[in-house]
Amino acid sequence: MSKADNMLSILWLLKTRKRVTAQQLSDELEIHIRTVYRYIDALCASGVPIVADSGHNGGYSLLDHFTDAPLFFDLEEQKALVQAAIFAQESGFPHGDAMNRAVSKLKRYTNAEQHRTLERHTAGFEVIRPPADAALEAVLQQLEQSVAEGRTLGMDYVKRSGEATENRSIDPYGIVYWKGSWYVVAYCHLRRELRSFRADRIQALSTTDAVFERPPSFSASDYFLKYLIPEPAVNEDLVAVELEGSPRAIGDVCRHWLLGHTVIERSERRVKLRLDAKSTLAYVPYFLLSYGKTFRVLEPSSLIEQTAELAADLCEYYRAMNRDAAHN
């Protein structure tokens, strides 16, 4: 092992044992005892409070308060970190290699009982994740670095319509993970306003010499949610939507990314929303159809009519598809 690994091993051994001798450290780490003395001196010089007791029952130990330092984690903290690392894999976390090294190091310096406990708690904890995308990971790493350093980037970006790649300069303010995709919220020099961009549509990034200052109170997630759920315009008509359904279905409405923000009343089997007219007829029918006969619309009647028209249109679409398949 490297010098750093050996010194960290000494710290862990001192933490897990009340007192340990230089010879015991030498035997445990399979290094010369004089090397142990050098490492102990180096740790003391760096500020680690190691106490050396002489005599028959002497040895090295740590001051009690140091064992509570952030370097050391109890078993619950270790379990939480390892499981969080597994969960982060689903999002395509941009520093996966470093995260895996950290988890490996954490496991390496646990004692046998802690290691067995961690293995039991992670054996049944799994996340279904998409295939690794090295190009996306590199883009996210560069975006995250730019946010931290306040460095303007040049970006080649493919718009949603699939048009030719467009080059623009951006000041990245933050990156957001939303419903399986990564986005960067950035000031766009081309449009001269804040915009959000899908990270997987970024074809290339280049660092520039220009710098920017990120607003100290800026929240990329708050901006992103406002972009998804715009405030109703002044004097815009708001429509009351009342639904009746099973407790689970009502819960789904209240947790929905769009509808949940509009809940004004809720009981076990009923929920009342207040939406703008456009959203009521443009989005809610699709939500209702995905639940089949689970919901009953109590109001407004326009929502019932729009949902019925959409269902009829879909029915005709698939009947036509079935007729075409029969002819072929």
UniProtKB/TrEMBL annotation:
Query: Which Pfam families does this UniProt record tie to the protein?
Result: HTH_11 (PF08279), WYL (PF13280)
Q: According to the UniProt entry, where is the signal peptide?
A: none
Source domain of life is Bacteria
Helix-turn-helix type domain residues: 8-60
- WYL domain location: 139-205
State the InterPro entries in the record: CBASS_pafABC_assoc_protein (IPR051534), HTH_11 (IPR013196), WYL_dom (IPR026881)
Report what the protein is called. Answer: YafY family transcriptional regulator
- Can you name the source organism? Paenibacillus solanacearum
Its taxonomic placement starts with: Bacteria, Bacillati, Bacillota, Bacilli, Bacillales
